[in-house]
Design brief:
By secondary structure, the chain is mainly alpha-helical. The strands form 2 sheets. It has a two-stranded antiparallel sheet with strand order 1-4. It starts with a helix and ends with a helix. It is globular, with a radius of gyration of 23 Å. 46% of the residues are buried. The chain is 75% helix and 4% strand.
Length: 350
Amino acid sequence: MTTATKTSETTPVPEPAGPALLQRLAVRPEIGAALGALLVFVFFSIITDRFLSPLGVATWLDDSSTLGIMAVAVALLMIGGEFDLSAGVLTASTALVTALLAVEAGWNVWFALLVSLVFALTVGAFNGWVVVRTGLPSFIVTLGTFLALQGLNLGVTRLVTDTVQVSGVRSADGYESAGWVFASTLNIGDARIQASVVWWIVLTALASLVLVRTKFGNWIFAVGGSLTSARAVGVPADRTKILLFMTTAFAGWVVGSCNILRFGSVQANQGVGLELHYIIAAVVGGCLLTGGFGSAIGAAIGALIFGMARQGIVFARWDSDWFMLFLGVLLLAAVLVNNRFQKRAERVRR
């Protein structure tokens, strides 16, 4: 009788699954962005009928996709504790390399794409190498790269074509197959979904898998959370950071390839200023400016909020200047929410 009583007293009572699930969700970096996306979606669905039409959905998904591809890569880099201000102009640089080789040099589009990929990865590796070798802030290093690439884009394009634009890619050899990969459309009912949307979904899923299921993902969080501690436990911090810069460069190549093969032309000043949008989308998605905290899925949701808001404003026939107000308020709110979620997550982990 006594034994039975002791057993019943010491047997732990299982906690309800509901509160535990809610607690786990509450510390996820992307939960704030998901709630924000839901709010924006419901708001524009109510005030304009065009928002939920097949054309409307395809439009805001298209708007979100290229931003989302870059935001996911930038989010990984920010979780690792670094920034890349050259990400926006690199999309133009890679597109220009592809266009100049395919149009002016007469190369097959696939060979031109391969060379532009090597160019992008080289720029990313250079950024990462300079940061880890010199200890300079990545903000300064990539700002220098941004200015250099901007000048290179304008100078080389004007030297070769006497203009600041390269066009005629559609007539180059290999365009049909390359265009199918980077610029085709998928018809779902009355909606025409661009290939960039597929790239966005695939790269987001891959980045999320790497971040939460691999050793490299653990390294990213480690170097962003505490570089000294990461090195003390054997994390290859320098290699991790260089690979992260190369990841943003790869994303820039994907976006540049989608743009040049879809529109058939590229401007030398294309992409300038978008690097801030990538960072904002990552912050809205749960990334902290201090590193060590964030989510690839959250960055994708942040880009989705951008697309829905920007196109929703157009569908509602508002002045587009209101988007900048929305952007500023969204950034400030995201920073406050993210800090709150980080503190909550730290308390739960203890």
